[in-house]
Write a structure and sequence with these properties.
This protein folds into two domains: 3-274, Metallo-beta-lactamase, Chain A (4-Layer Sandwich); 293-439, Nonspecific Lipid-transfer Protein, Chain A. Helix content is 25%, strand content 24%. It is built from twelve helices and 24 strands. The protein has helices at residues 46-51, 69-72, 88-96, 151-157, 175-179, 195-202, 231-241, 293-298, 305-325, 380-388, 413-419, 425-439, and strands at residues 3-7, 13-17, 20-24, 37-38, 42-44, 56-59, 81-83, 102-104, 111-113, 116-122, 130-136, 139-143, 165-169, 206-210, 214-215, 246-247, 255-258, 263-266, 272-274, 338-345, 351-359, 362-365, 374-379, 399-401. The longest helix is centred in the last third of the chain and has 21 residues, at 305-325. It starts with a strand and ends with a helix.
Length: 440
C-alpha cells in the first residue's frame, strides 16, 4: 500500500490511499486572495474539479489563502468539510454555501476517513492555526501548513521520529518591511534560528518546502521585498542540518508515491495545469527602493464614482466612528496627542489628504495648520477593496511613514479600523458575490 501526495497550490494538497482521497486547504484560483498570483504559474480545469468527489476536505485555518468560498463552491455539497476555527461565523458561511456536513476540528482528536487518519495538532498561534498529522499506509506525514511549531507540540511529535515526510513552510514574510519601509531589516536573509533544532528533532526522511507559492502583480516591488528565502537557500541549509534527508520540491500538479522504503514520481493532477517555467525561484533585494504610492496607484484599475464615494466617505465619517468605538492600549503612541495624516491616491496618482487630531480614543478631522507626526498612504482602489471585499493588509500597498521607531506599526489608525475585530470579511464578500451570481 502506498500514500500518494499531490500538490495543488500554496498549502493545498491531495492525499490518496487505498481508494480514499482527502483534499487539504484547497485553492482552485489564480490569482487567489485578491492578488496572490501562483508562483510557479498554473491554471485550473474547473470542469474536472467540479466532477471530483473527494472523501473529505480539511481546512487548517480561516485565512483566505486557505479557506476560499470560490474554491469550495466548485465541490459537491455532500463533501464533508472539516475545519479548524474558533469562530462559528465561518462554519455558518460554509453551510450557507450549501454544504450539509461541516464539522469542527479539535486538537489531538483523530478523524478517520477511509484509509487515512488525520490528527489536528496544536500550532504556536492556536487561536488561528492548526497543523495536520496524517497517518496512512503505515506512514506518518506532518503538514505544518504555514504555521509555527509550538514547543509543546514538538515534544509530542518527537516519539514519531523519524517522520516519513514533513511539509514545512519554508518561506518567511517581511510584512513590516513593505508596510513601513523605514523599518526594513535589510541584510542577508536568514532562516529562523529555531528551525534546525525542530527539524532535527523530527528527523524526516523527506522534507517538502511548502506554502507561499505566490507572488504579487508582475509590476509589484513586493516581489523582491516580501519573501526573502529562496528554494535554493532552503534546500542547501536543510540538507546541512539533515544530511540523510531528501529535499523534495513539489510544484503545483506534481505527485509522488510514498512508501516506507522509497519516494517515486506519480502521474500529475490532471486538473492543475502548469503554465510556463515551473522551477522558478524568489529574488529578494534588500537594497530595493520602494516606488511612491502615487506610482503604485496608477497601476490599479479606476473605481466607479460610487465606489470612490464610499471609500472617501469612510475617511470622513466611518473611520472616525470605528476608531471611537475601539479601545486603545495604554502604551499606544496615540495615547499622546498627535496629528495623523491619511493620503488616498486615485488611479492617476493624485492624493486626497485627510488630517486628524488624535488623543487616545478621541479622533476628529482637523485643518492643515499642524504638521502630521504619523502619515499613512493607500491607493483608493485598495481602501475600497479592504472595505467591500475583505482584502488583507499585506496586499493593500498601505505605506506608513514617520512613525517613531519605538511605536507599534499595527497601532496605525487605518490598520486598526480596517482589521481590528474583523473576521471573515473576505469569505463573507465572496459568499455575497456567489449568491448574487447564482440568483441571476
Amino acid at each position: 500500500m502506498t500514500l500518494r501526495i499531490s500538490r495543488i497550490l500554496h498549502a493545498g494538497y491531495v492525499f490518496e490511499c487505498d481508494g480514499t482521497r482527502i483534499v487539504f486547504d484547497p485553492i482552485f484560483e489564480n490569482p487567489f486572495s485578491r492578488n496572490c498570483h501562483a508562483f510557479p504559474d498554473v491554471r485550473f480545469d474547473l470542469a474536472q474539479i467540479r466532477g471530483m468527489k473527494p472523501d473529505a476536505v480539511f481546512i487548517s485555518h480561516f485565512h483566505d489563502d486557505h479557506c476560499s468560498m470560490e474554491s469550495l463552491d466548485l465541490l459537491d455539497r455532500d463533501t464533508p468539510i472539516y475545519l479548524y476555527c474558533l469562530f462559528d461565523e465561518l462554519f455558518a458561511m460554509i453551510r450557507a454555501l450549501g454544504f450539509v456536513n461541516v464539522r469542527p476540528l479539535k486538537v489531538d482528536a483523530p478523524v478517520q476517513v477511509g484509509a487515512i487518519e488525520v490528527i489536528p495538532r496544536k500550532a504556536l498561534d492556536s487561536d488561528v492555526d492548526s497543523m495536520f498529522h496524517i497517518r496512512a499506509a503505515g506512514l506518518n506525514v506532518l503538514n505544518v501548513v504555514d504555521s509555527w511549531m509550538d514547543p509543546e507540540t514538538l515534544e509530542q511529535l518527537k516519539p514519531y521520529a523519524p517522520w516519513d515526510m514533513v511539509l514545512w513552510p519554508f518561506q518567511t514574510m517581511r510584512e513590516i518591511d513593505v508596510i513601513a519601509p523605514s523599518r526594513a531589516e535589510g541584510g542577508t536573509p536568514l532562516l529562523p534560528e529555531e528551525w534546525p533544532e525542530q527539524l532535527q528533532a523530527l528527523a524526516p526522511r523527506y522534507v517538502v518546502p511548502s506554502s507561499c507559492q505566490f507572488v504579487q502583480e508582475p509590476w509589484s516591488w513586493y516581489n523582491h521585498s516580501l519573501f526573502p528565502i529562496t528554494y535554493r537557500q532552503f534546500a542547501q541549509e536543510v540538507s546541512a542540518w539533515l544530511p540523510g534527508a531528501g529535499i523534495v520540491r513539489l510544484n503545483p500538479s506534481v505527485s509522488v508515491e510514498l512508501t516506507p522504503h522509497a519516494l517515486t514520481p506519480s502521474a500529475p493532477l490532471a486538473w492543475v495545469l502548469p503554465v510556463g517555467e515551473q522551477d522558478v525561484d524568489y529574488a529578494y533585494d534588500a537594497a530595493i527602493t520602494p516606488p511612491p504610492t502615487s506610482e503604485i496607484a496608477r497601476h490599479l484599475a479606476p473605481l466607479s464614482a460610487e465606489q470612490t464615494l464610499l471609500a472617501l466617505d469612510y475617511c470622513r465619517n466611518g473611520l472616525l466612528e470605528k476608531y471611537r468605538d475601539m479601545e486603545l492600549t495604554p502604551d499606544s503612541y496615540f495615547e499622546t496627542p498627535c496629528v495623523w495624516q491619511l493620503s488616498v491616491y486615485d488611479h492617476e496618482g493624485v492624493a486626497q489628504q485627510f488630517r486628524y487630531r488624535i488623543h487616545g480614543d478621541d479622533i476628529a478631522l482637523t485643518g492643515d495648520q499642524e504638521a502630521p507626526t504619523w502619515t499613512t498612504e493607500i491607493p483608493v482602489a485598495k481602501l475600497y477593496a479592504g472595505l467591500a471585499m475583505g482584502e488583507s493588509l499585506t496586499s493593500m500597498y498601505m505605506r506608513i511613514n514617520g512613525a517613531p521607531p519605538d511605536a507599534d506599526i499595527v497601532d496605525d489608525p487605518l490598520i486598526r479600523c480596517l482589521f481590528n475585530d474583523a473576521f471573515g470579511a473576505y469569505q463573507s464578500a465572496q459568499l455575497k458575490r456567489i449568491k448574487e451570481r447564482n440568483a441571476q
